[in-house]
Amino acid sequence: MTPRIVLTVVGLFVLLHGALIYLMAADFAILGLPEMKGNNLLATIAMHEAVGFFSFFLGAVLLAARNLEISAAKIVLKGASIGLCILCAGATSHVFSLQDIPEQQPPLPIVVIFALLAVWSSYVSLKKDGSA
Fold first, then answer.
1. pLDDT-based confidence at 128, cuts 50/70/90?
2. 3-state secondary structure the chain
3. Pairwise CA distance, residues 21 & 28, whole Å
4. Is residue 130 very low, low, confident or very high in pLDDT (cuts 50, 70, 90)?
5. Against a cut of 0.85, is the pTM above it?
6. What are the φ/ψ torsions at residue 130 (nearest 5 degrees)?
C-alpha cells in the first residue's frame, strides 16, 4: 500500500466529513438542545461550520500531498496519523462527557472509521520497505 493511496482515502474521508458537518451545521447545533435560540444558536452553528471549513483545509492538504516523493509523503502521513489519533481521543472523550446529551455525542461508526484510518496511516508511514 502506497502513501499516495492512503493520503487519497484519508483526504477524501476528511473532505466528506467536512462537507457533512458544514452542510448540516444548523441541524447538528440543535440536536438534543431544542431550546437553544438566538445568539447561542448562531454561535453554535458558526462553530460547526468552522469545523467543516477546517476539515476542507485538511482534506485539501492531504490530497495535495499525494504528489510528494514517497519519503515526504510518509512524513505528511505520519503527521496525519498523529492528528487522527488526537481526533479519535477527543471524540472518545465526548462520547463519555456528553452522556446527558446523547444526540451531541460523536457517532460511534465515525470514531471507528477515523481510528482505522489512523492505524492504517501509521502502518504505511512507518513501514520500512520501498513498496510503501
1. confident
2. CCHHHHHHHHHHHHHHHHHHHHHCHHHHHHCCCCCCCHHHHHHHHHHHHHHHHHHHHHHHHHHHHHHCCHHHHHHHHHHHHHHHHHHHHHHHHHHHHCCCCHHHCCCHHHHHHHHHHHHHHHHHHHCCCCCC
3. 8
4. low
5. yes
6. -75, -10
